Amino acid sequence: MLAVFAVLTAGLLAFHGAVPNAAGRLGSLLETFLPWLGMVVLAQLGLALLRRSATALVALLLPVAAWTYLFGGLLLPMAKSGLHDLVVVQHNVSDENADPAGTARSLADAEPDLIALQELVPPALPVYEKTLAADYPYHAVRGTVGLWSKHPLTDARLLNIKPQEIAEPWSRGLRTVVHTPHGDIAAYVAHLPSVRVRASGLASSWRDESADLLGKAIAAEPLKTVILLGDLNGTVEDRGLAPLTSRMNVAERGFALSFPAAFPLARIDQVMARSTTVAHIRTLPATGSDHLPIAARITLR
Predict the structure, then answer these.
(1) By the 8 A CB rule, do 241 and 211 touch?
(2) For a tag site, which of 63, 183, 193, 254 has the least CB within 10 Å?
(3) Separation between Cα atoms, residue 261 and residue 287, nearest integer Å
């Protein structure tokens, strides 16, 4: 029986894309927590050792190999930083954050080149602007998302990624150009709609629609190098983000589970790039938000 469960676990890891999404988006739900199947493998290993089952131990080589293929590279040490590297921070600061000034200082302590924020509400926005002004003289805000930069920004505009069924005002996308010493970069900041886990499965249709709109906008971007920072409410394994992950590179090193902050289960805050590499991603100390901030090192080509 342990050997059978090991084979089934390996099948879920290796062929998660074959799990159908039609009913309750079960495929996306599995992919959201796919790395945690490693804990299932560890539990199976403990039972196999307890039972002294050679058959089960041999069968466990399958899920171990599948998990290592999918996620083992994320555990490798971070490569040495280069002269053309760009450090970026992504954080959903929460519209209920009671300490926006402290949050801003904490993010600036990481000394990034760019800071992308979501859930910027009118009472807190001036606090972020004032606290970050000295180190980040350039910033652009559209709706509830914004980007602070050490480098000049131009051509900032609202990005329409609003699902059709949302009737109320909803502005969660920004596109601007960052003029770095190593060339111009199109920077996108986005906050995709939330998903909910229900008895019927994963409710993610708005998120998926918004991801499709964002993917089309990035596909039409004339600048070669693109960086996307945002709370995408999905992991890079989730097929709901395929309009983005099929067009952009994701982190090569680091797990950086970011939500919920009290006990992170998934990285739904993302940094992706086109025509460049996200070399490493990590979490930063908790702030007054229900998300952990993440920092990424972009290796410009």
Answers:
(1) yes
(2) 183
(3) 9
